[in-house]
Write a structure and sequence with these properties.
Length: 325
Amino acid sequence: MLKQCVSLLLLLGCATVSAATVELKGKASVTGTILAEKPDQIIIDIGYTVLVIPRSQVLSIGKVSVVPNTAPSPTPSSTVPVVPEATSVVGSDFFRTALSSVQEQSVRELVKLLGSAVVQVRTPGGLGSGFFINPEGFLITNFHVVENETQISVEVYDLKDGQLGRKSYKQVCIVALNKFGDLALLHIEDKDAPKFVNVPLGQADKLSVGDHVFAIGSPLGLERTVTEGILSTKTREIEGTLYLQTTAQINPGNSGGPLFNMRGEVVGVINMKITFGEGLGFAIPVETVQHFLNHRDAYAYDNDNPSAPYRYLEPPSRTQNKKAE
């Protein structure tokens, strides 16, 4: 993560501009436009602000492109294979994106392939769903599923010899929160945690109205429930935010679970439905999820202040040193 050594800076008139991913110490990375490279620091524009990164925190700098996934293949003990033909963005093995050449499959085939990547998220106040984005135990769910909670457990389900096995993990850490986007990034930290089956992220922008989609989750606590439907619209505006609307049946407990296309890619994160209606479910577009993950340091959960859904970056040094008038 970016620590206190990274500060904000408003920079004008920089001549050198190049897109890159900067690998940082602590297994973090920042993707954006490099405005300047100096002997002691890198200045990078990440879209909504400009960061100054000390050279001492930089491991490497690479151009942004797509390359074949170099992540290790599942071990023979894995019960469900990872989605094939997946790629990862260079400099960021944190989550995967899938090639457009991946063929569509039936819901039955995809559920066998993806089911173990979908989990149930439990708290003293209720439950929701979630899904693994990488084998290291990082998963996405909704902010409202873990809001104001300090005790979180994750139920993982594996299908072995036709039988559904369950494993509960209780050492779950909140990594990042986006209250206004209703997204949360969690991490399983149990010592005996294995490599987890995970799913690639797709592109909601490439969906068309009428395309088939399906959801996997735990509505009312009924784990691994699968519902199928179509995409009703890609641009349903609710309180100033655009959502995917789907006819796939959604109920309490589905929150935080994935909405898949027929190539096995996550295209949305389910977060709400219209209570007095049928087939009126809504999901956060996956592009919002990718932005959240790419800038997770900006949304990092502050353990010193558990009540805060986000943390503040240090102000520019010139502001710190300026005397109050």
